[in-house]
């Protein structure tokens, strides 16, 4: 059995993917697990033209008539394209952008480069659109370590297609600079005006009315409107960025996300930044009153790329990846696991031909011949030096006696603990032995929730009275869980884990000498539901340590 599968894995590494081999048996599932352990197989390039399963929503035109799939090689002759912030584009640049999208929207449905087909390609990769042979789970590029590389290349070809339609190789996608809280007009942290003009090729009807300019974005939203004032939003947005990208994302696993290997039921959990603010920006733009109840279009991954702002949003996501690479910390590097580097994805290039990209080819934007205009990144220090957050007063004032009593009075985590309307507080023992390297993290696993409903919680450290009204500006705030509902996770991955960095926060709170940590989770949103956890541990993440 094992040999058969190893052989098949080899076959799948080539271009030919056979259709379903028949019913999935326990034997075949077991065999896949064996393949995983014994002979790891990086994800082979899916044949997107032939094997789409989600006919009405995600499938691309068939029969496919372009060139057979070929390997991608970056073109060193391409001019370096500078991606600029949308809010600072000149009138001529906006006009060129509008022309490009109009040309793309005018392409016929038979052309895989058309705007509609681009949206379908995103859907295909995340909404139960494609299955590998003999694999019971749909391919899913969210919730794991392929999130950054896959989206980078999706945007790369999107940009090349627009450039080709304009017959202008210097064309660069702009980015929506929502992480920039500078209080000066034109504001970076509102939906760009050029994307908000009804009738423009950059406009989309299915949006949240509270995401119209000049309303400032709430990076910690659950969708819909907010009652927070502009100054509170600016402060909280900076804190979210700092927590999710700087203090909370010090290792490959924390930032890129958990592994996703061939045969897995999707990724084992998103990186901090994929979760929030990437996911929350989607929710903020989507229409909370959409018929599906899934915040169409942007708030529903199956439809998100039908809104042109998707591409400017993801351009900023990609830009923040380049910023993260420049932050200090010896663990801030890409995963080196071959199942990551050798995984391959299929796209359509500017000629409408199938093209296969290895993840290892996506990691350096300079090789891909694009870079980003420098913009202020106040959130990196958030007005303080990293690790010196004591200048912000704690929201839970204490002294050692009070802290010791709090720890004694708090129950240890027990399997099947449930977070529902009432915040959940528990303690977890820290490892006795502290390695000299690595970052201390809290890991919650065995999560069960309803995959068709969005879910959102906030986590606090030594803040037992934290609830869904507590501001994320409190230094005790350590991160969020933000799940954007989509049908691609119909078989919700029970192996999914949620990880959050504790180390820098424990130091900043001056709590490094206690044997336990007290954690509080508070859920909020329109769909508060019982969320069960089976396991909570504090471990040292040494990913990326040499
Ligand atoms: C892409 O990955 C495959 C195996 O996964 C490997 O054989 C091939 O050499 C790689 N190509 C490039 C350009 O990295
Ligand atoms: C923790 O213990 C060490 C060693 O005893 C001490 O130097 C340090 O000041 C303590 N930290 C706090 C916040 O009490
Ligand atoms: C906050 O939590 C309370 C229960 O503690 C709940 O009734 C309320 O709906 C929650 N508010 C939001 C916005 O989620």
Automatic annotation (TrEMBL):
GO molecular function: catechol oxidase activity; metal ion binding
A Pfam entry, by short name: PPO1_DWL
Domain Tyrosinase copper-binding, first and last residues per copy: 142-159, 307-318
TM ranges: 21-43
Reported cofactor(s): Cu(2+)
Matching InterPro entries: Di-copper_centre_dom_sf, Polyphenol_oxidase_C, Polyphenol_oxidase_cen, Tyrosinase/Hemocyanin, Tyrosinase_Cu-bd
Keywords of the record: Copper, Disulfide bond, Membrane, Metal-binding, Oxidoreductase, Thioether bond, Transmembrane, Transmembrane helix
Stored Gene3D superfamilies: Di-copper center containing domain from catechol oxidase
Family statement drawn from the similarity comment of this UniProt entry: Belongs to the tyrosinase family.
Name of the protein this chain belongs to: Tyrosinase copper-binding domain-containing protein
Source organism: Physcomitrium patens
